[in-house]
Amino acid sequence: xxxxxxxxxxxxxxxxxxxxxxxxxxxxxxxxxxxxxxxxxxxxxxxxxxxxxxxxxxxxxxxxxxxxxxxxxxxxxxxxxxxxxxxxxxxxxxxxxxxxxxx
Length: 103
Known about the structure:
- The protein is an alpha+beta fold.
- The chain has a domain at 41-97.
- The chain has 1 helix and 5 strands.
- A hairpin with a 7-residue loop joins strand 3 and strand 4 (77-79).
- The protein starts with a helix and ends in an 8-residue tail after the last strand.
């Protein structure tokens, strides 16, 4: 029985070692040149809509507060640390795709 385990272990080690080796020579990766384009940044004001043909985003408004208690619910409250504020952002998202299930 002991010989079977030793033989099985040798077979597994042989398969493992042979799988880690290759007869193919290693090819050094060639140098690639990448070109990067500067991102175009456009600012929008409240009430304006930005879209990319797939989704439209409208900024309805922004307000700042140091306490969040939107629902009068003790579990949905938060208080900021001294000198910090929360930004409450009101946005509208619209799917412009004809296939409403696409991502």
